[in-house]
Design brief:
Elements: E1 15-19, H1 37-41, H2 43-51, E2 55-59, H3 76-86, E3 90-92, H4 99-102, E4 111-113, H5 121-124, H6 128-135, E5 140-143, E6 166-168, H7 170-183, E7 190-194, H8 203-212, E8 215-218, H9 222-229, H10 244-252, E9 258-259, E10 264-267, E11 277-279, E12 287-291, H11 293-304, E13 308-312, H12 325-339, E14 343-346, H13 350-357, E15 366-367, H14 371-378, H15 384-387
Parallel strand pairs: 1-2, 1-5, 2-4, 3-4, 5-6, 7-8, 7-13, 8-9, 13-14, 14-15
Antiparallel strand pairs: 10-11, 10-12
Bound molecules: adenosine monophosphate.
């Protein structure tokens, strides 16, 4: 069911409560922001609400203060940065609920940033009384924090019961648009590329994507659990021995969709310069740290044939060249396929870093801002923060 978008709201003269994801990285002590990417990501939504004549209240969590005030996790530096980026004054509230905050209600065209929601344990507990107090600050609610949409907290779910309308912000809208495009009736052939450290982190994703995609390419350390489950040698490679039966079953029921590496880049140690060899079979005493050249050729050919591409997780230890070749080749193939008209969505976290390192961020259709949330979406789980929004 499609959800209300901020574009559907009448905002003139209203106070809008926008749940944003300003969980930015800070220097030790919490004084300086080291990346303002998450703040920039919500600027279009904030600017849209201001242009429509709304007074804007912004709320976010930052870090894990565990329900207690902690000055090292204050959003105060975010207010300063946001003001710079908006080129407007941004008022900063000493808390997120209470009489003092209510008295700071922003006039149309003004912005108020609330203090860290997680200074109250009631936020993560999705406490009704706390939700009601948050709702009392505003007329309408907008959620632009895709990265926390997989959590049912007071500011993402509870509050919605106490407001007249709850809509998706522009960033949230874009995330849902692209993730839906690649999972609901994707244009064929469709492919998923799953890599990373552990099978155990991505079981549900693999199971769901096997239903959606025509092919599923496996890379990263998780490939070696699959190979070992087939009785193939894996040397000192990372293997989850307690997941061998599961890997075997996934392969047996995949209908031939799952593809595994056919060769490997190996080293005797987890080091960049301890040795590098390309092998078809992993020798004893060696660990596979990347997919090999024949696998690259095979995977690239599959990617270039595809019209829909989902990518989550690196093909090897891409942070440590020369074991970045597989990941870089996949990144470039995804970019080339997208240049040729394919739709591509890259999951957050390490895949986002890989896409940046390869210099192709602008050549994929969408890079998700939410690692955990996009993995849950791709697992077929309904995100509570999305489900709670008002239906269109
Ligand atoms: P994830 O967070 O599950 O996407 O895993 C990403 C991490 O997996 C990265 O830090 C990679 O360095 C690591 N990784 C990928 N391939 C391998 C491998 N073959 N051996 C060990 N670690 C790997």
């Amino acid at each position: 069911m499609a959800k209300l978008s901020i574009r559907d709201l009448q905002l003139q003269g209203k106070t809008v409560f926008i749940r944003v994801d300003f969980n930015v990285p800070l220097t030790a002590g919490g004084k300086e922001i080291t990346s303002d990417k998450r703040i920039r990501a919500s600027l279009p939504t904030i600017q849209y609400a201001l242009a429509q004549g709304a007074g804007v209240i912004l709320a976010s969590h930052l870090g894990r203060p565990k329900g207690k005030r902690n000055d090292e996790m204050s959003l105060a530096p975010v207010a300063v940065k946001l003001s710079e980026l908006l080129k407007l004054p941004v008022a900063f509230a000493p808390d997120c609920i209470g009489a003092e905050v209510e008295a700071m209600k922003p006039a149309p065209g003004a912005v108020l940033l609330l203090e860290n929601l997680r200074f109250h344990a009631a936020e993560e507990a999705n406490d009704p009384a706390f939700s009601k107090q948050l709702a009392a600050l505003a007329d309408v609610y907008v959620n632009d924090a895709f990265g926390t949409a997989h959590r049912a907290h007071a500011s993402t779910v509870g509050i919605i019961q106490y407001v007249s309308q709850a809509a998706a912000g522009l960033l949230m809208d874009k995330e849902l648009e692209y993730l839906t495009k690649v999972t609901a009736n994707p244009e064929k052939p469709s492919i998923s590329i799953i890599g990373g450290a552990k099978v155990s982190d991505k079981i549900e994703v693999i199971q769901n994507l096997l239903k959606i995609s025509d092919k599923l390419l496996i890379g990263g350390a998780m490939a070696y659990t699959f190979l070992k489950s087939q009785g193939l040698p894996t040397g000192k490679s990372l293997v989850e021995d307690d997941k061998l039966d599961l890997a075997k079953e996934l392969l047996a029921t995949s209908g031939g969709k799952l593809m595994l590496p056919i060769d490997h880049a190996v080293s005797p140690e987890f080091k960049a310069d301890a040795g590098y060899a390309e092998v078809a079979e992993i020798p004893e005493g060696q660990m596979a740290l990347d997919i090999g050249p024949k696998t690259i050729e095979l995977y690239v050919a599959e990617i270039l044939k595809s019209k829909t591409i989902i990518w989550n997780g690196p093909m090897g230890v891409f942070e440590m060249p020369p074991f970045d070749k597989g990941t870089m080749a996949v990144a470039n193939a995804v970019a080339t396929a997208t240049d040729g008209g394919a739709i591509s969505v890259v999951g957050g976290g390490d895949s986002e870093k890989a896409v940046k390192t390869a210099g192709i961020s602008d050549r994929v259709s969408h890079v998700s801002t939410g690692g955990g949330a996009s993995l849950e979406f791709l697992s077929g789980i309904t995100l509570p923060g999305v489900a709670a929004l008002t239906d269109k």
